[in-house]
Amino acid sequence: MIEAVGLTKRYGDKTAVHNLSFQVRPGAVTGFLGPNGSGKSTTMRMILGLDNPTAGHVTISGHPYRQLPNAPRHVGALLDAKAVHGGRSARNHLLSLAQLSGIPARRVDEVLGVVGLQEVAGKRSKGFSLGMGQRLGIAAALLGDPQVLLFDEPVNGLDPEGILWVRNLMKALAAEGRTVFVSSHLMSEMALTADHLIVIGRGQLLADMSVTDFISANSADFARVRTPGTEPQAREKLTSALTEAGGHVMPEQDGALRVTGLPLPRISDIAHEAGVRLWELSPHQASLEEAYMRMTQGVVDYRSTDDQKAGLHQVPPPGAGPAVPVPGQGQPGWYAPPPPQQGGPLFAPPPGPYGAPQPNPYAQPAPQGQGPGQPAAAPVTADRTEPEDPR
Ligand SMILES: Nc1ncnc2c1ncn2[C@@H]1O[C@H](COP(=O)(O)OP(=O)(O)OP(=O)(O)O)[C@@H](O)[C@H]1O
């Protein structure tokens, strides 16, 4: 088990992790989720003794990593797949790690087989694609057959087949009773892989619960209601009537209404009593991805802005044709999630063994339209392999 208590890390006046307390239990895959820069890698580095906490502590099986007897056999980690001597072959890289940890050399070929790199084991890793590098990093993590495994963004750069393989590998490792802690940005992937979730934003805990509980707590049911497009006054009348009856009504981009807090038959009755015809009344559930986005929307460090292309285009003359629609913008089928409770926190973490969360020093206004933009996804390079450097 991994246990963090009051874990805090400051770099100068920058707080990367603030008062984080959680447990990662054996026999389950625990997903570690948070937006870019939320402190996931910093937390993982502290777990592995690569960074010292400013306050608090973290233990693995009851010991700080550096005091663990035979740590490399007990804990395996993939932190940075690029942290490899590129001139070495995959096999030699793993052999050198094995020698350092007293692991028999035959184990190297076993893990090369597990990650599917047997064919390129003799090639220099600097010719490896991003996905091959990830596989090599996973092989290194598995080398000591450890009980505790940490993976920082293990599916980064993997193709769909590779992503499925990682998903099944994580589940299989947990089913063997191991502790598996996996960081990701991707709620959708974690929903398929993890049993338990720890969600952080700006270094502070936002949620610590099972995936099942997260889904039922966050994937709110709602109704979509549409009145005839030719009768805008009917839409307003219905909005008032539903609000009066205790519903929460939000306009959708395609002109429909999103209604929460009222069952469908009640909405139908209210419309009938108000003399409003309905063209649509349908049940929906907000996706888990929406729930995660909603939970973390206030703690995102990097936001993209619309590209205004100032001065690059001539203003079209009046009466010119409509702009080409942009996928996902202003089109039917895109549903804005309901806003968080007015004045309340985005998410109230359940009372845990560590008491209520403390105020977050990150409580600064999120940058509005000034961020440097979402960093582009790392490119997937072609599978190039070179023979090993003879040096
Ligand atoms: N060595 C360091 N010196 C100064 N600031 C740092 C250092 N390491 C991390 N930070 C800052 O701490 C914050 C958390 O970074 P961290 O890499 O842990 O986030 P993350 O959740 O892993 O991000 P990503 O998902 O983008 O990898 C960031 O603002 C980062 O700039």
TrEMBL record:
Residues 307-391 are annotated as: Disordered. Residues 321-334, 365-379 have a biased composition (Low complexity). It comes from the Bacteria. The keyword NADP does not apply. The keyword ATP-binding applies. Keywords: ATP-binding, Nucleotide-binding, Transport. Residues 335-364 have a biased composition (Pro residues). Residues 2-227 form the ABC transporter domain. It holds the Pfam family ABC_tran. PROSITE patterns: ABC_TRANSPORTER_2. GO terms for molecular function: ATP binding; ATP hydrolysis activity. Belongs to the ABC transporter superfamily. This is ABC transporter domain-containing protein. It comes from Streptomyces fumanus.
